[in-house]
Protein 1
Amino acid sequence: MKKIFYLFFLPMIFLSCSSDNDEVNSNGINPPDWIQGTWLVEGSVTGDVGFRFTGSDVVLLQNLLDTSYGDLVNHSRELGQKVEIEQDVSSDHYSLHLIFSSGQTMKFEFRKISNDEITWVQSQNTVLVKQ
């Protein structure tokens, strides 16, 4: 009976302990509250295309392929690459610029139209609708 107790009890201790990995997940991406959620291209005929914003990530949604830029930043840093993050935030504007030490850069810029619509500036001001 003691062995069964230890088999269930010990894993619970290890799972409940915090680790240094919590800091690794802090990638430096911080979208504002007003843009957080899922936004899809209005009237897309190719399936779900748009973005999902969380408190610490920007995810590009393309049908069945989701690209997490927070994960990309974390992975690059794990490989020893430097990643610079520039963000511009206001009550109606959010831009994210990722600059990788390899020379690759990515820039996303969004403008708020209303609580339910934003434009994706780089894509000819494509309208995205909040889901």
Protein 2
Amino acid sequence: MKTADHAAQVRNGSTVDPGCRAARLGDLSQRVPPPRIADVWLFPPLPQVEDSSEFLLFTSILENGGRALYSARMVPANGTPPHQVVVEHGRAPADRVPGLVAGLQRRLGQPNPARHVSIDGDGARWEAFVEQSREADAAD
């Protein structure tokens, strides 16, 4: 259970938990500028990958209009605090990405579809998504 102090820190943007969604999105925006982020998919925690936080999949917009597909997951670091690892898995035409994500969902055997958030390189959409995530983190 989070404390009231933790909730205030999350609302103010100074998160304590690097695994909370708002902190993870902040980390992503340092790696890939939000104007290049096309889509984000939020998978529930995957026991075979990470058991305590969401598994994130996202795409960045390439110069040719295609998409680079990335995963972001939390990993422990040999006695140091957990940190997010972002890996590029490949590139594809934009219209092929939904099929790739659906295939991943089938292979993972998730009963519920991943939550899809369309950013489409729009800074206002990104900021709204980050703010919603801060609010959700504060409510936890």
Protein 3
Amino acid sequence: MKAETFLPEHYKPAEDEPFMNDRQSEYFRIKLLKWKSELLGDSKNTIEGLQDSSRNIPDIADRASEETDRALELRTRDRQRKLVAKIDAALRRIDEGEYGYCEETGEPISLKRLDARPIATLSLEAQERHERREKVHRDD
């Protein structure tokens, strides 16, 4: 088990420090854990809301509207469930010392990109290439 890293209150990773040093790793670990906690809290609220709203609505239009809202909410939660899996994968990469490096090229992913999208696994250039290939090979 690694010693806990002290992180100043308003710390932001900077380009002029060694890439993915202990402070940067801890910064992204905390960011990912907070994000995961928010998503799980939202899911819990959704489950409670769905249990509370299982009532019989006599008006067909009102019932249809509620069912549409429920389906949309469940689809959103499913996306968030997948996002939690990506957050867990990013946390594993931090533990393994692989976080912040492009899976395709092995080059560091920019700190700005990681700050905006902490689950990123590809550098911006590799992501753009991936999206171009996907667009070319997509079934229209």
